[in-house]
């Protein structure tokens, strides 16, 4: 028997799915497996379905489900349908399981776990591939063992024993697995609950999934799932198995190896569009384009440019991508994103309504690689006084420069109009009178007002800080 998913093109509307297991927090490797099916559905006017595979009752938690939903909401990867929960579909699985029973495609297996372990040990000792040997598989003329008393059997699927399973993977190309390498899959546990590979197929059939885009850790499941599709009389979907995402040490990205929850990147000040951009490039490319918008990505995305090699996560590169997106972001939008971060630093919400925050964002965004850094720059504009870098203070706010700083405070206090050009003119007057160069005065002035010696143009910074505040802080020298 040979099965090929490439023999008949998928017809009709594209329907993709993301089907995470809520057994731990969702990290960037997981969310990339959601990004591509979401993008493919959007690029083709299709539907994107979210399905929670929560049949592992011991490890699945509602907290993990909540983080999945929260992460996808933040990234703007809104499903068209779902979330569906597998545990709520058990009656449907059992109904389809009965169909396979009626067709004679499953059989009860009474081999105990101990017997199965002993069988595997014997096979490995003989340097054979460990696999179920078909002891309880009914065959014409075969006498089955006596049914042991008090043992609840598992149900196994009768895997074809000749031929091959073949599919054209959109990442891996042609994949062929000989059926003789596969044993008979357990598709229902002793208590009657169906197993993962069976539930997945029933879900994909019922939800009309046309393309399954997932991690290549599922490749070994694919031939088994194709068999079940065929047994149920359905054409398998198109498969695309994505290479693993590695961490910076070359290990598979995982919680054990230092991966962070997707929501942590949100909390650290990364932009959703920057995350989309960065994750898209972890396994897909559009020529040499490094920086692109969400709209461009969804316009360009296809399965033909998915990479076949493992991608390596690089946090420094992610920060660089985020910095580019901060520069690209509208100033008013940045103000809206930074405002909650300033409130978290103790700034009253009413104070942030004075109209300055967008201009502050415009002035500092070229220096920022996260929203947290931008909030740090914005904080002195709203706090009573800056947190001063003591090293900068000792270096620049010297006894020799204090008279000039007091003179600058007087000149600025006397200005009839508080604008950047007027502030610049006041600096020039004091510099000339004191016989100083601009850095000698501007750096200590920055330290006193912003807490650090290096900022954008001091006249632009002062214009946004406000006349009363600047004068008051300069007089503290």
UniProtKB/TrEMBL annotation:
* Residue ranges annotated as motif 'KMSKS' region: 252-256
The source organism is Lampropedia cohaerens
Family, per the entry?
Belongs to the class-I aminoacyl-tRNA synthetase family. Glutamate--tRNA ligase type 1 subfamily.
Q: Which GO terms describe its molecular function?
A: ATP binding; glutamate-tRNA ligase activity; tRNA binding; zinc ion binding
Q: Which positions fall inside the Glutamyl/glutaminyl-tRNA synthetase class Ib catalytic domain?
A: 13-320
Quick one: which residues bind ATP? 255
| Assembly notes | Monomer.
Q: Where is this motif: 'HIGH' region?
A: 20-30
Please describe what this protein does.
Catalyzes the attachment of glutamate to tRNA(Glu) in a two-step reaction: glutamate is first activated by ATP to form Glu-AMP and then transferred to the acceptor end of tRNA(Glu).
Q: Which UniProt keywords apply?
A: Aminoacyl-tRNA synthetase, ATP-binding, Cytoplasm, Ligase, Nucleotide-binding, Protein biosynthesis
Under NCBIfam families, the record lists: gltX_bact (TIGR00464)
According to the entry, every stretch annotated as the Aminoacyl-tRNA synthetase class I anticodon-binding domain falls at 333-474
Q: What is this protein called?
A: Glutamate--tRNA ligase
Q: Name one GO biological process term.
A: glutamyl-tRNA aminoacylation
Q: Which domain of life is it from?
A: Bacteria
Per the UniProt entry, the Enzyme Commission number(s) are: 6.1.1.17
Pfam name, any one: tRNA-synt_1c
- Enzyme class, top EC level, equals ligase
Q: Does the keyword Cytoplasm apply?
A: yes
Q: Where is this region: Disordered?
A: 129-149
Q: Name one GO cellular component term.
A: cytosol
Cellular compartments annotated: Cytoplasm
Q: Which reaction does it catalyse?
A: tRNA(Glu) + L-glutamate + ATP = L-glutamyl-tRNA(Glu) + AMP + diphosphate
InterPro entries in UniProt:
aa-tRNA-synth_I_cd-bd, aa-tRNA-synth_I_codon-bd_sub2, aa-tRNA-synth_I_CS, aa_tRNA-synth_I_cd-bd_sf, Glu-tRNA-ligase_bac/mito, Glu/Gln-tRNA-synth, Glu/Gln-tRNA-synth_Ib_cat-dom, GluQ/Sye
Q: According to the UniProt entry, which residue ranges have a biased composition of type Basic and acidic residues?
A: 129-140
Tell me, in one coarse class, where this protein mainly resides. Answer: cytoplasm
